Amino acid sequence: MKALLVVDVQNDFCPGGALGIHGGHKIVPILNKYIEFFERENLPILVTRDWHPKVTKHFEQFGGVWPMHCVEGSPGAKFHPDLKFPKDALVMSKGMDPEKDSYSAFHAIDLSGMALANLLKTFGVTEIYIGGLATDYCVKFSALDALKGGLDVFILTDAIAGVNLEPEGSCLALEEMVSRGAKKTISEELILCLKHASTARPK
Ligand code: VGL
Which CATH number fits domain 2-200: 1.10.150.120, 3.40.50.850, 3.40.50.970, 3.30.110.30? Predict the structure, then answer.
């Protein structure tokens, strides 16, 4: 079973936001294509958001490295207005613990408090397709945790963008994910392969 994981496509991570990522908004139409496809195939779609309290060690004012961003309920924490996901997509929040950075989607919980790993288990997910922001932080840590949990991990390389605190940040992050077993894919390849799988499946 495949699932799509869309990581932190929020206003604060897009140009003009508190932690705007160069080109962060450009992945939105591509992600929408993936979302449409997973929806059409009736496959689970999980969408995470950074959801911080105002005071957290994650922010530079309180000992962290990041400017204040994605404060719970703020306009910056809203999903990018062009990101279109279905009503039954699972929205998961992370970063609520003021003591932790919580980069990985595997720290996220849904509205009922269920953790991502449990949700994936419930759906019987064995393959996870990851896109979103940022390649070198939340995408990377989510992918590494997914691999540790025994999932097959596919990085949607046309639907990610990195913060690049270090100039090579995104490249190094991709290399690290791949060296630990993640595979890279792009929409055309994935859509072809899913189409093939669905036509091959007995009705
Ligand atoms: C992220 C930097 C700080 C991310 C979150 O979503 O990748 N990056 N907080």
Answer: 3.40.50.850
User: Token pair for residue 58?
Assistant: 């994650």
The question of whether 8 is a catalytic residue gets the answer: yes
Domain extents in the chain:
2-200
Segment 13-39, tens digit of pLDDT: 999 999 999 999 999 999 999 999 999
Among the options 14, 70, 136, 138, which is catalytic? 138
- Of 101, 192, 180, 90, residue with least CA distance to 143: 180
94 is catalytic: yes
Nearest CA to ligand 1 atom 2: 137
Residue 188 CA to ligand 1 center (angstroms) comes to 27
pLDDT of 52-105, one tens digit each?
A: 999 999 999 999 999 999 999 999 999 999 999 999 999 999 999 999 999 999
